[in-house]
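stuck on this fold:
=====
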Amino acid sequence: MNIAVLPGDGIGKEIVAETLRVLGRLGLRFEFEEAPVGGAGYEESGHPLPEKTLALAQRADAILFGAVGAPRYDTLESAKRPEQAILGLRKELGLFANLRPVQVYAELADASSLRPEVVAGLDILIVRELTGDIYFGQPKGIRQHDSGGREGFDTMRYTEAEIRRIAKVGFEAARKRGKKVCSVDKANVLETSRLWREVMTAEGKKHPDVELSHMYVDNCAMQLVRDPRQFDVIVTGNMFGDILSDEASMLTGSIGMLPSASLDANSKGLYEPIHGSAPDIAGRGVANPLATILSAALMLRHSLGQPAAALRLEAAVKNTLRDGYRTVDIYTAGVGTKCRRVSTAEMASAVAERL
């Protein structure tokens, strides 16, 4: 199994290194090849997605990605900023379906910003369309306005085909779960969302065994903190999914706990934690590696055909939390009982031991 390893910037290097160490304990045969991306890619080649990095990603069976970005790159022109690397990979590899599971471990119910009884047993899957919407729509830019000042503009757009293919991913996922899909849009205001709702409704009729509901994105944001367990699978566009999944991460206690998978039509994927590069804590050994380790479990399941290994890895994470290991971001859970504050490496070692 050939894995392209793209650690990126900040804590990306630490959490990916520890995840590779954990994967090495599974007893499977991996071939890891590393390449620079993001700020590291810009430093080496003057571009956040160097040609050799893209070529590696294209020929690999799967991609394990860390995180990109740092304040020192904020003044670069848009095309050179580290974040363009992940957008470029999504576009060039056709990674249109982003799966973001949101699961609350019983051991971390106290770490959530909501009351434990509100989030206990929570298990949501957010399915985010990844290659359309306002992030990729043209035209966009900054130009002089007739008023004498400047204006910035972006274009939100979706085709029926793009909506239909992400709808199918959502409905198929729901069939294996609670058989409920909530389609999230802003159809009361946006033409793009009106088309989104029409196509989702049509696709829903092809999946009569799955219950389909619709919700405006502002209401969904509110419902996620009022009654998150009402949801099973949420299907939404690129921008709304970006925002809602970060909101949902706090239901679990920390953004350091959420993995993600970005898949193409053939289930080749890029796997990454949903958090950023956190340059303020980089190099201090305090970052939570669990989101990246859980992303590796998704990689085993979706791209590498190793579902049993994925279950082993997920069980090892759960048992590590059960035994009280906590990085600083989740340390509030169980303070005063048997919890033990640990470093990035110590957390990964605990997971590896439990494999």
Q: What stands out?
A: Residues 113-252 form a domain with the Isopropylmalate Dehydrogenase fold (CATH 3.40.718.10).
